[in-house]
């Protein structure tokens, strides 16, 4: 059986599947301190005969496999989790079971690329726009891990003339996350995103900031597709606005695929991360079994 762990700052979602990736059981665990949270994760997974595990974790993470802190959650403000050796504790418990360890957005990117909106694309940028903004990237279908998480959620954006909002990022104030996350919308307009009317100027402004993210992503990574997930992206009216803003600011400087297929909404919704984690677990298990069969 395969397992996936989507380790978020608010909740952990864990799932176990059969070889066809049919989910046998899935649970949610509130994220408390690392010891208690992982005790509950282990109690769940230990009921099954697990062959491999795909893990996507909140960060910042150390993903430099040459680093002494590889697999640690590093400078998070979340109490108890600073400099926590997450991968080390998982490896200590699961011993010889292969573990693929990456960011929460990367596992969602894998789910979307293999079974969701990114099918057929090789180089995939996946943004989540929710409580925070994060980006994952797949290079020719494989996880791209830098030394740490990609932090494109904190790129600087050009402030719209009509926007006087200071921004909510505690580090940069008016970076992308500071201006366009769910909490930024709520703080700017005094309404939860879900309650902002469809025809509000708020969506044009939001689309402008997300279009700037698409422009920087296009110019620096030239992906095949840019997929948006997360709570704010559930507003389908955003997508035509992002595409038209993007086209306006890019000014025809580079060519892109047809924008209707280039800037798209995630197809797997909240399941993308778990599906991606299970796919990564399957890859790892198949790799182990084929190398065991290979002649010396
Ligand atoms: P998280 O990022 O915490 O994993 P979500 O991706 O669900 O969770 O994002 C939550 C944020 O998205 C909240 O700020 C919420 O107000 C906002 N949000 C959720 N649904 C909508 C919606 N339909 N329209 C606009 N904003 C929404
Ligand atoms: Zn920031």
Automatic annotation (TrEMBL):
Per UniProt, the enzyme's principal EC class comes to: transferase
The UniProt keyword set, sorted, is: ATP-binding, Carbohydrate metabolism, Kinase, Magnesium, Metal-binding, Nucleotide-binding, Transferase, Zinc
Question: Does this UniProt record's set of keywords contain NAD?
Answer: no
Top-level taxon? Bacteria
GO MF, one term, reads: ATP binding
Q: Which SUPFAM superfamilies match?
A: Actin-like ATPase domain (SSF53067)
Q: Which EC numbers does the record give?
A: 2.7.1.4
Give cofactor(s), names only: Mg(2+)
- Write out the catalysed reaction: D-fructose + ATP = D-fructose 6-phosphate + ADP + H(+)
* Entry similarity comment: Belongs to the ROK (NagC/XylR) family.
- The protein's name: fructokinase
Q: What is the source species?
A: Schleiferilactobacillus harbinensis DSM 16991
């Amino acid at each position: 059986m395969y397992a996936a762990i989507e380790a978020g700052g608010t909740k952990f979602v864990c799932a176990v599947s059969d070889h066809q990736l049919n989910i046998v059981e899935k649970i949610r665990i509130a994220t408390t301190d690392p010891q208690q949270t992982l005790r509950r994760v282990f109690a769940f997974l230990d009921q099954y005969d697990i062959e491999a595990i795909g893990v996507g974790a909140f960060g910042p993470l150390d993903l430099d496999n040459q680093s002494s802190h590889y697999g640690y959650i590093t400078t998070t403000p979340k109490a108890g989790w600073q400099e926590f050796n997450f991968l080390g504790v998982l490896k200590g418990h699961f011993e010889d079971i292969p573990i693929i360890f990456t960011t929460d957005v990367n596992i969602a990117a894998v789910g979307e690329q293999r079974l969701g909106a990114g099918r057929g694309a090789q180089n995939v940028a996946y943004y989540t726009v929710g409580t925070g903004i994060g980006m994952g990237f797949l290079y020719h279908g494989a996880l791209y891990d830098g030394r740490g998480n990609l932090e494109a959620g904190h790129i600087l954006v050009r402030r719209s003339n009509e926007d006087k909002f200071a921004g909510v990022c505690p580090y940069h104030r008016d970076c992308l996350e500071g201006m366009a996350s769910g909490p930024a919308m709520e703080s700017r307009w005094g309404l939860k995103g879900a309650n902002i009317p469809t025809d509000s100027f708020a969506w044009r402004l939001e689309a402008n900031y997300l279009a700037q993210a698409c422009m920087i992503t296009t110019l620096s990574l030239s992906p095949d597709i840019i997929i948006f997930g997360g709570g704010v992206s559930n507003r389908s009216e955003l997508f035509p606005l992002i595409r038209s803003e993007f086209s306006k600011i890019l000014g025809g400087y580079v060519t892109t695929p047809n924008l209707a297929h280039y800037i798209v909404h995630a197809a797997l919704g909240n399941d993308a991360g778990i599906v991606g984690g299970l796919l990564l677990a399957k890859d790892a298990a198949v790799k182990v079994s084929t190398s065991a069969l290979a002649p010396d």
